[in-house]
Specification:
The structure holds 2 protein chains of 2 kinds.
Chain A: E1 2-6, H1 8-18, E2 23-26, H2 33-45, E3 51-54, H3 58-71, E4 76-79, H4 81-86, H5 88-96, E5 102-107, H6 121-125, E6 132-135, H7 139-154, E7 162-167, E8 176-180, H8 183-189, E9 207-208, H9 215-247, E10 254-257, E11 264-268, H10 273-285, E12 290-295, E13 297-299, H11 303-309, E14 315-320, H12 330-339, E15 347-352, H13 362-378, E16 385-386, H14 390-402
Parallel strand pairs in A: 2-3, 4-5, 5-7, 6-7, 11-12, 11-14, 14-15, 15-16
Antiparallel strand pairs in A: 1-8, 6-13, 10-12
Chain B: H1 36-48, E1 52-56, E2 75-78, H2 84-100, E3 111-117, H3 118-124, H4 126-134, E4 139-145, H5 186-191, E5 197-201, H6 206-216, E6 222-228, H7 232-236, H8 242-251, E7 257-261, E8 264-269, H9 277-281, H10 297-313
Parallel strand pairs in B: 1-2, 1-3, 3-4, 4-6, 5-6
Antiparallel strand pairs in B: 5-7, 7-8
Classes of the chains: A alpha/beta, B alpha/beta.
The complex binds thiamine diphosphate, iron/sulfur cluster (SF4) and magnesium ion (MG).
The site of magnesium ion (MG) has 7 residues of chain B, from helix 3.
Chain lengths: ~400, ~325
C-alpha cells in the first residue's frame, strides 16, 4: 500500500485492520475515540470484516473483550485515562485469564483536576496487572507495535494480553508518514489465530477464570504470569527479528539514541522522547557527551538491556511523565531497582515533567543536564525535581488571580 | 432459529415426573444445605441441557467452581461482580463470529447463561445488564435472589425486603424495622427494556420453572429469570424447610409467579386463597424482631398492605 499520512489513532486503526481482528468491543473517550470511529466506519463500509459493539462502560468493554478472547477470537479494544481506570478491575482479571487480547491506551492525565493532555499515570497504574506494555514514540511505531503485540500475546510461551501506549494529542492527533504493508505480508508475519488454550466448545467443556482457595495455589498462578511475562522478553526478540525480516524496521525493548559514547543520559518514554533527542543533539553541539535511552517495552521490564546500555555512564536522568504523589517518579523507582546492584552504576537523578501534556522546554533540558554534571561533581543527588518554567509560573499566577486566590 | 438446541424439548410438562432425570449440576458443591438458589440452578440446568456456558458474577455461586473442581458438565467463566452480562456479550459475539467464519459447527453452538445473585442483578450489574438488554443480546439470565449480599455475610442489597434484618440493617431502638427501604422491583426494571422473555420462578415450583424455560427457548434475545431463593443461613431457618418456605412466599403472594412476553405480563400461578404474610415471616430469624419482644403491628400491617396492593393492582385479589 505504501506510505500514508496518518495520525497515531489512524495508525492504530490500520494495525487492527491488517491484523484482521475479529471483534472490537468499544467505548468512547477522548483522545482515543478516533480509533474506534475509524474501525466502525470500515466495518460499516465493508472494508473490514469484523464485529463491533459499543458497550455500556469500559468495565463492560474490557470484560467483553476478555471473554471473546477466552472464547477464541482475535480481539481488540482501546481506551484512555478515566476509561482505563474505570475498567481497572477487569484489566487485572483478564490478564489472569491468560488471553491474548491487544489493547491501545492513548495516554491522558487522570482526574482530578480533569484534563485532556497526556501523561502516563493512567498506563502506569496498570503496570502490575500482567498486561505487557509497549510504549510508542511515532505513528509508525504504533502501527508496527499492534502487529507485534498480537504475535507476542498469542505465543504460547506468553499468553498474556498486551497494551500498546501512545500519547494523547502529541501522537494520537499528529500526522506522520506511516508505511502500510499489504495484507498478505502481514499474514505471513501474523497468521490466523488458532486458539489452543482458551476456547469454549461443548465437546470439551472448560471452566475458565475459576476461584482458587489457598495462597499456595494463588501464588502458583501469579508466579506463572510473572514467568510468562519474563519469557516475553526473549519471545519479543524473536518477534522483532521476524518483523525486521518482513518489514525492514528494527525494534528492541529499549532504543539507544547517541548512547554508545554518551556520559550523560536521559531516560524517557513515548512521544516526548523526540524532545529529549533534540535536547541531546543540542547538548552534543555544546560538547557534552549526551545520549538518550528510550524505554519501549515497560512490561516485562527489560532489566538486562538497561543494565548493559547504562554500564559506565556518569549520570542518568530519568524524566518521568507521571507522578507517584508522595514519592516521585514511577519509572525512576523502577530504574533504581534495576541498577542498584550494578557495581559501576551511574548517579541516578529524577525529574518530573510533561504532566497533563505540559511542554518540556529546551531550558528545562539544559537544567537537567546541569543538574547531572553538578551531581557528578558533588556526588550529591537531590530529591525529584518538579520541572516548571518561570513563564509557566507567571501564567499560573495570572489564573490564580482571576480565581481570587492571588 | 439460531441458538436453538435441537436436543431441548419445548413441549410443556404437566407434572414433576416429567422433569428430565439427568443432573447437570453434580453433587458435592460447597453451597449450604438447603440452598434454594442451588435447587433453582439444578432445575434450570435440567431445562437448558449441557450445551451451555455459564458466565458468573461474584456471589455464593462463584465458589461452585474452585480449581480444579467444577460440578458442571458445561463450561463456565467467572467474570467479576458487575459485569457478567458483558462477559456474556463477549462470549456470544465470539461464538457467532466463529460460526460465521466456519470455525465452529453450528451444531456445536452454546447457549450463554448469566448466573448471578441479587447483589449483582439489582445493584452493581444494572448497567451491564441494561446494556445487554438494550443490545438484545441472545442470552439467558438466571438471578437467584436471596435478598442480600449472601457470600459476604448477608448484608443489605437492593433486593432486601422492608422489615428484615441483615448484617448491615440490624433492627434496633432507633430503627426497629431493620431494613427501612423497599425491595427494588427488578422485574419491572428489566421489563421496561422490553425483553422477549422475562419470568419469576421459584425452586418450589419446578414444573412452572421448567415450562418457562421451554417457552423462553423460542425467543432470540434476552431470556431472564428471577428466582426467589430461600437461604437458610441468611434468612434463619432450618435447611429442611427450604422448599416449604419458598412455597410459602408464593402462597402468601409475596413472590408472584409471572412472566412477560415482549412486555406483556401474565401471572402463571395465582393462589386460590392467599395465606397471611405472617405465615411466611414468622418462620424466619430475619423477621423475628417483628414478633418479639413486642409485636410490631404497624410494620406487619404495612408488609401485608404492600402485598395486597400489588395483587389489587392486577385485580387478582379475591
Ligand atoms: C467489585 C466488588 N465489590 C465487592 C465484592 C464482594 N462481594 C463478593 S460476593 C458479594 C455478594 C454478592 O451478593 P449477591 O449478588 O446477592 O450474591 P450472593 O452472595 O447472595 O449469592 C460481594 C459484595 C466483589 N467481589 N467485587
Ligand atoms: S448463603 Fe444462602 S445463597 Fe449462599 S450458598 Fe448458602 S444458602 Fe445458598
Ligand atoms: Mg444475594
Amino acid at each position: 500500500m505504501g506510505k500514508e499520512m496518518l495520525t497515531g489513532n489512524g495508525a492504530a486503526a490500520w494495525g487492527v485492520r491488517l491484523a484482521e481482528v475479529d471483534y472490537i468491543p468499544a467505548y468512547p473517550i477522548t483522545p482515543q475515540t478516533e480509533i474506534i470511529e475509524t474501525i466502525a466506519k470500515w466495518i460499516s463500509d465493508g472494508a473490514m470484516d469484523a464485529s463491533f459493539v459499543t458497550m455500556d462502560s469500559e468495565h463492560s468493554m474490557v470484560t467483553a473483550a476478555g471473554a471473546a478472547s477466552a472464547t477464541g477470537v482475535r480481539t481488540f479494544t482501546a481506551t484512555s485515562s478515566q476509561g482505563l481506570l474505570y475498567g481497572f478491575e477487569m484489566i487485572y482479571t483478564v490478564a489472569g485469564w491468560r488471553v491474548p487480547l491487544v489493547m491501545v491506551n492513548v495516554s491522558r492525565g487522570l482526574s482530578s483536576p480533569i484534563t485532556l493532555g497526556p501523561d502516563h499515570n493512567d498506563i502506569l497504574a496498570i503496570r502490575d496487572s500482567g498486561f505487557l506494555q509497549i510504549h510508542c514514540e511515532t505513528c509508525q511505531e504504533v502501527f508496527d507495535s499492534i502487529l507485534m503485540a498480537y504475535k507476542l500475546a498469542e505465543d504460547e510461551r506468553v499468553l498474556l494480553p498486551v497494551i500498546v501506549n501512545m500519547d494523547g494529542f502529541y501522537l494520537s492527533f499528529t500526522r506522520e508518514p506511516v508505511e502500510i504493508p499489504d495484507v498478505e505480508t502481514v499474514r505471513s508475519f501474523l497468521p490466523e489465530y488458532q486458539p489452543e488454550h482458551a476456547f469454549f466448545k461443548p465437546a470439551q467443556p472448560m471452566a475458565q477464570g475459576v476461584a482458587v482457595l489457598g495462597g499456595e495455589f494463588y501464588s502458583y498462578f501469579k508466579y506463572q504470569m510473572h514467568l510468562a511475562s519474563k519469557n516475553a522478553l526473549e519471545v519479543y526478540k524473536e518477534v522483532c527479528g521476524d518483523f525486521e525480516q518482513k518489514f525492514g524496521r528494527k525494534y528492541r525493548a529499549i532504543e539507544e539514541y547517541m548512547l554508545e559514547d554518551a556520559e550523560y543520559v536521559l531516560v524517557m518514554t513515548n512521544s516526548f522522547s523526540t524532545l529529549g533527542k533534540a535536547a541531546v543533539k543540542r547538548a552534543r553541539e555544546k560538547g557534552l557527551k549526551a545520549g538518550l535511552l528510550r524505554l519501549r517495552v515497560l512490561r516485562p521490564f527489560p532489566d538486562p538491556d538497561i543494565k548493559n546500555a547504562l554500564k559506565g555512564k556518569r549520570a542518568v536522568a530519568v524524566i518521568d511523565q507521571n507522578i507517584s504523589v508522595g514519592k516521585g517518579g514511577i519509572i525512576y523507582s523502577e530504574m533504581a531497582g534495576c541498577l542498584y546492584n550494578e557495581i559501576n552504576r551511574p548517579l541516578l537523578l529524577s525529574f518530573i515533567g510533561g504532566l497533563g501534556g505540559k511542554n518540556i522546554s529546551p531550558e528545562e533540558f539544559e537544567f537537567i543536564f546541569d543538574k547531572m554534571t553538578t551531581a557528578e561533581d558533588t556526588g550529591i543527588v537531590e530529591t525529584p525535581h518538579l520541572l516548571y518554567t518561570e513563564n509557566e509560573w507567571k501564567e499560573m499566577a495570572g489564573l490564580k488571580e482571576i480565581a481570587g486566590k492571588g | 432459529m439460531q441458538g436453538r438446541d435441537k436436543d431441548m424439548d419445548t413441549a410443556p410438562i404437566r407434572s414433576i415426573r416429567e422433569i428430565p432425570p439427568e443432573e447437570n449440576v453434580l453433587s458435592g458443591t460447597p453451597a449450604c444445605a438447603g440452598c434454594g438458589g442451588l435447587l433453582t440452578l439444578r432445575h434450570c440446568l435440567k431445562a437448558l441441557g449441557e450445551k451451555i456456558v455459564i458466565v458468573n458474577a461474584a456471589s455464593c455461586f462463584t465458589l461452585l467452581s474452585i480449581y480444579p473442581f467444577t460440578p458442571f458438565k458445561n463450561s463456565w467463566l467467572y467474570t467479576a461482580m458487575a459485569c457478567a452480562p458483558a462477559g456474556a456479550q463477549g462470549v456470544r459475539d465470539a461464538l457467532d463470529i466463529l460460526i460465521k467464519k466456519g470455525k465452529l459447527d453450528p451444531e456445536e453452538n452454546l447457549k450463554v447463561v448469566v448466573l448471578t445473585g441479587d447483589g449483582s442483578a439489582y445493584d452493581m450489574g444494572l448497567s451491564s445488564t441494561s446494556g445487554a438488554l438494550y443490545r438484545n443480546l441472545d442470552f439467558y439470565y438466571i438471578c437467584y435472589d436471596n435478598e442480600a449480599y449472601g457470600n459476604t455475610g448477608f448484608q443489605q442489597s437492593g433486593a432486601t425486603p422492608f422489615g428484615s434484618r441483615t448484617a448491615t440493617s440490624p433492627p434496633g431502638g432507633v430503627r426497629p424495622a431493620g431494613t427501612q427501604l423497599q425491595k427494588k422491583d427488578l422485574f419491572e426494571i428489566w421489563n421496561s427494556h422490553n425483553p422477549p422473555y422475562l419470568a419469576t420462578i421459584s425452586p418450589a415450583y419446578p414444573v412452572d420453572l421448567m415450562n418457562k424455560f421451554r417457552k423462553a427457548e423460542q425467543y432470540k434475545g434476552p431470556k431472564l429469570f428471577i428466582s426467589h431463593s430461600s437461604c437458610p443461613p441468611g434468612w434463619g431457618f432450618d435447611p429442611s424447610q427450604s422448599v416449604s418456605l419458598a412455597k410459602l412466599s408464593v402462597e402468601t403472594g409475596i413472590w408472584p409467579l409471572k412472566e412477560s412476553v415482549h412486555g406483556k405480563v401474565e401471572h402463571t400461578f395465582v393462589p386460590k386463597k392467599f395465606k397471611p404474610v405472617e405465615d411466611y415471616l414468622k418462620e424466619q430469624e430475619r423477621f423475628a424482631h417483628l414478633f418479639k419482644p413486642v409485636r410490631q403491628e404497624d410494620i406487619l400491617k404495612s408488609i401485608q398492605g404492600m402485598v395486597d396492593e400489588y395483587w389489587r393492582k392486577y385485580k387478582l385479589l379475591p
